[in-house]
């Protein structure tokens, strides 16, 4: 069983930055893929970014050049640095791990508004 706990969400003005953190209950060294997803109000959950154990990274087109995903295997942490935030980035952000099955955190709210 894998427990994921997100933190770092909040209210930020357009153009601002936030850093989300995801703490895993097991060593993430053996987890092939970890990622961040988001669910905007009234919409389906969507991929934001994934990072593979080997270092490959994928981003949704909507966040390329603004968001950066990283993983620290030694600390069992995954991060999402979000810069130049826009109102359309408002969503609940979820951490995900593919380890036998798909594991999810409880989510953290990000609201971008003036």
Task: Describe how the helices and strands are arranged.
Layout: E1 4-7, E2 10-12, E3 18-24, E4 33-39, E5 46-52, E6 57-59, E7 67-72, E8 77-82, E9 91-99, E10 101-104, E11 108-112
Parallel strand pairs: 2-11
Antiparallel strand pairs: 1-3, 3-8, 4-5, 4-9, 5-6, 7-8, 9-10, 9-11
Written description of the protein model:
By secondary structure, the chain is mostly beta strands. The chain is 0% helix and 54% strand. Strands 2, 4, 5, 6, 9, 10 and 11 form a seven-stranded mixed β-sheet that branches. Strands 1-3-8-7 form a four-stranded antiparallel β-sheet, with no helix packed on it. The model has no long low-confidence stretch (mean pLDDT 96).
Class inferred from helices and paired strands: mainly beta
Question: What is the helix fraction of residues, given as a range?
Answer: under 10%
- Please give the largest β-sheet: 7 strands, mixed
Rg over C-alpha atoms, rounded to the nearest angstrom: 13 Å
Number of helices: 0
Q: Report the oligomer.
A: single chain
Share of β-strand residues: over 45%
Provide the succession of SSEs: EEEEEEEEEEE
Q: Measure the end-to-end span.
A: 40 Å
């Amino acid at each position: 069983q894998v427990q994921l706990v997100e933190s770092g969400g909040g209210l930020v003005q357009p153009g601002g930055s936030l850093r989300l953190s995801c703490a895993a209950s097991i060593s993430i060294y053996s987890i092939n893929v970890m990622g961040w997803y988001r669910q905007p109000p009234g919409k389906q959950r969507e991929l934001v970014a994934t990072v593979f154990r080997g270092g490959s990274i994928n981003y949704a087109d909507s966040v390329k050049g603004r968001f950066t995903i990283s993983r620290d295997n030694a600390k069992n942490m995954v991060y999402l640095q979000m810069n130049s935030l826009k109102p359309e980035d408002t969503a609940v952000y979820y951490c995900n791990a593919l380890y036998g099955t798909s594991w999810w955190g409880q989510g953290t709210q990000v609201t971008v508004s003036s």
